[in-house]
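Internal ticket #5521
Category: modeling
Description: The requester needs a full-assembly model to guide mutagenesis choices. All entity lines are attached below as received. Residue total reported by intake: 860.
Assigned to: D.W.
Attached entities:
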Amino acid sequence: MIGLLLATLTQSLTLIPLALGINLSYTLLRATDMTIDGSFVLGAGVFAQLSTMGISPFIAFLVALTCGALAGTFTAFLQNGGKVDPLLAGILTSFILYSVNMAIMGRPNINLLNTPTLFSTAFAHSTTLGWFSVALAVGLIVVAFYTLLQSRFGLCLRAFGDNPALLSRQGYNVTYLRVAGFSLNNLLAAASGAITAQIIGYADIGMGVGMTLVGIGAIVLGQHLILPLVKKQYLRAGSELLAAFIGITLYFFILNGLLRLNINPIYLKLLLGVLLALFLRTATQKASLP
Amino acid sequence: MMMPLLHFENLTLRHPSLERPILHHIEYTVQQGDCVVVLGANGSGKSSLLKLLDGRYKTNEGKIILKNKNILSLSTQERAGCIHTLTQNAQDNLFLNLTLFENYQLIQNKHKADEIDSLADYLRAFNPNLATKLNVLVARLSGGEQQAFALALAVLYPPEILLLDEHTSALDPKTAEHLMALTAHIIHERQITALLTTHNVNHALAYGDRILALKEGLVHDRIERNDKQNLTAEMLMARCY
Amino acid sequence: MKRLLAHFSLVTLLLLSACDKPHNTRNPAQKPIQIGIIIPIEHPAMDEITSGFEDTLSATLKQPVKFQVMRAQGDINLQRAMILQLQNKNIDLYAPIATQPTEMTAAMIKDRPIVGLAALLPDSAREHSQLALVDDEITPTQIIQFIHAVYPLKTQFTLVYSNNDKILPQVNEAVAAGKTLGIQINTRMITALPDLYSIAQSLSPQTQGIIVLKDVLVVSGIATLSKTANEKHIALISADDGSVQNGSGFALGVKEYQIGVEGAKVALNILQGTHATDIPVVKMTNLSVFINPEALTAQGQDIQSIQEQAEKQHYAVVNVSDARLGAVK
């Protein structure tokens, strides 16, 4: 049981920034941003390429985040002032990002097994210290993100997702908000990619496949469980954050749990898919109520 | 003679798929403090006139002069400070998935200098229920409460022109009557210039200072302050439709 | 109702997954050696490697052995969970297949030996874990030497490669190997697939053959080169069976089953007490020659000479048109 919990925690931890990013696009901006599949790899790839070139992991990490934000900016501009569907724009960007990632990485796989990373010193000391340092980095990202959400900027992003036309008529610059929102969620995805690469020991061109859908599934799961319990609307940002944590943790708990039950992995995705489909159904039904 | 605030000059709006212009050579002047009721059948162009004002529709033919400035060349954002619209659809007026307080914060953002009394006190005058629901999502309010709240926000920082595009027509008759009376009271009390569209000729007579009747995109009739007193609802109906 | 169903299924799953199965505690002497095999994605080649590994190890190991095969189906989250689960099961030796799963295993498992099958990693990557490697890449020198043996009279070749920093050192090695054998190898680089067409059109008339290494981009456009080779009756030689199926005349390469066999030898060595990092990276010596008789005829290549040389070097000859029909295992 302890093994199961540890497996769940260590796996969820690296994907928490991604979950926050998806929470931002899916819940606040109300757009399914498929760019995340690509910017996750972009973050990993940029970090791996720069750090194997001998650049300080801190700088490599920051550049990776910036590149993620740029990918989001690109998606925002592709939407052409809201005329192109964000889903389509995201798919297009992630399509383009495949080539960009390949060009940046120069090869499909860069290994980081013997490269200094943000956490390598801590892991060399002890595994516990290593995971503590990962938790610290993720914690910093979470705190920064939460502060941003609670600010007026966060409110504007939420209003943008709810009703961009009205926000524009109230005199807000929606183009700026669209760029800011999509940059931020892809920055978070890139952060997750860069952290994951450091934990699993490599960046790989195919490592982002299906990340968005897993993330959305996990978040819907979490929100379904958490949000009905929260009646106070001003606790909303916090409860959404909590829902993202719980969703992603639960996803990995189930994934690891099923594996431990020796359920044939052929059916694993089917089972998870059916479960998520049930949750998505109930989520849309709830949303359509007055 | 009051100073003309708004002037439509030879205003024309066309749609590529329609042979007849939606609005054709509209000439009309609105004075500061007027409450002008725009009457007309469906498709007469009255909603389009309002949409040209707030920027939801665009045209290059003619001018809309607001305080000596042609606003047709301004973006929606640039018009935001001086024109505010309320329609019958709550989602055009309010952020439904934000709370009342958050909706208020978004409006207030642009006018940092003004100190106002607490939101609850302010809202009590519009609808006593609102004051207790500051942290409730707008989507959870009744239709009447939503429109009352939208009106409250619209006049929080009075715009140069308030556009009321059938803002009561989605409500039940009693609530609609109540909201219309409240609206009229507020705009007269605060001297707000308003353009109001409605199908209710009784409202037009009761609350409008002046009436502009449109038919098939043309100005069909104008009824000024002094003419209005002698009119009955039936007569107005006959003149305008 | 649906909401209830969703809640119900979630609770069931949670309960099920919470019940860890009790471990079988048999007599320690009887306890089989546990080996975890990690297969990143479903592919016949992966299954071939797995069977080669399992067959050889079962046959040579004296103790009972139990294989835990984990199939990640291209999902890295699943793969990570699988490695964690193997870790939880106290696996004695890990055998990840391909470079990416080997990297992940090496990053996560420090206290158990790992045999990376068909994994290409620099030696530095082995420093912090107990990692042994079976490298399935054959050296360009081996390829050039074999070509020279088959065609001792041909001295002009063109090597087409892509701008991939992994390929460039191999290209340099091939050119150097050619020089020592008196073969002049001209190199042509492509940056994108469409470049292949213009390169195929502008080949030097002296060229007697086109060489392609295990170069993903070029191999994906092998049909373009094949068309030119067929038209000009010059040899097209590659380094993997896939490209031979798609129109290259022949290739010197590695049979996947054999990678598993080599891996099993390394695993055996480790289980007998050798430290994984003390075992040098295993290079494949037991090679195969893949031939495409149809393409060979079209390109005017000498099947007989290929077969003779293969026999001389003890390389197996695999006809890919048979293999495609499943006639050759």
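Resolution: model delivered.
Comment from assignee: Chain A has twelve helices and two strands.
Ticket closed.
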